[in-house]
Amino acid sequence: MAAPCAEMEPAAPPPSPPPAPTPAAAPGSAGLVCAQGRNLRAVLCQRCGSRVLLPGAATFARRELLLPAMRKKAAAAAAGGGGDVLREHWLVRDMFSFENVGFTRDVGNVKFLVCADCEAGPIGWHCLDDKDSFYVALERVAHE
Ligand SMILES: [Zn+2]
């Protein structure tokens, strides 16, 4: 009756995210991602053209991140323009991979990335809990 060696339920492996589909299939990133998942083109500030990343400095990543609305006008910022959930990003592992970038003050444990020259932004997201991950939203930058 007693089963000394009860059959071990095989531990269910933790659900792992499915492998990303071919990056080139992503609508917003078409033509921007090379076969290795890196940025084919330089990443520039949309407003002043300042260079943020050189080609190949980042990898394409999908993650849902909430970024405050771009500060286009002081009035819009004063109105508290809310934010956007952005899903397509350039992921940079090393802060020194940036050509130019600025940071906002911490908001909780998050810093937002802005253009180093004109402070347009936020163009990206960085969490202080993960010092080696800097996200730059594709929709918030221009590509050369
Ligand atoms: Zn700029």
From TrEMBL:
| Example GO BP | post-Golgi vesicle-mediated transport
Record's keyword annotation contains Zinc? yes
Listed transmembrane segments: none
Please tell me whether the keyword Ligase is annotated for this protein.
no
Keywords from the UniProt entry:
Acetylation, Guanine-nucleotide releasing factor, Metal-binding, Protein transport, Transport, Zinc
Query: According to the lineage, what is the superkingdom?
Result: Eukaryota
Q: Where is this chain compositionally biased, Low complexity type?
A: 1-10
Q: Which PROSITE patterns match?
A: MSS4
**Pfam families for this protein:** Mss4
Which GO cellular component does the record give, naming just one?
cytosol
Question: What is an example of a GO molecular function annotated in this UniProt entry?
Answer: guanyl-nucleotide exchange factor activity
| SUPFAM superfamilies named among the record's database cross-references | Mss4-like (SSF51316)
* Ranges annotated as biased composition (Pro residues): 11-24
Q: Where is this region: Disordered?
A: 1-27
Q: How does it assemble?
A: Interacts with RAB8A.
Q: What does this protein do?
A: Guanine-nucleotide-releasing protein that acts on members of the SEC4/YPT1/RAB subfamily. Stimulates GDP release from both YPT1, RAB3A and RAB10, but is less active on these proteins than on the SEC4 protein. Might play a general role in vesicular transport.
Name listed for the protein in its UniProt record: Guanine nucleotide exchange factor MSS4
Source species? Lepidothrix coronata (blue-crowned manakin)
Q: What's the name of its gene?
A: RABIF
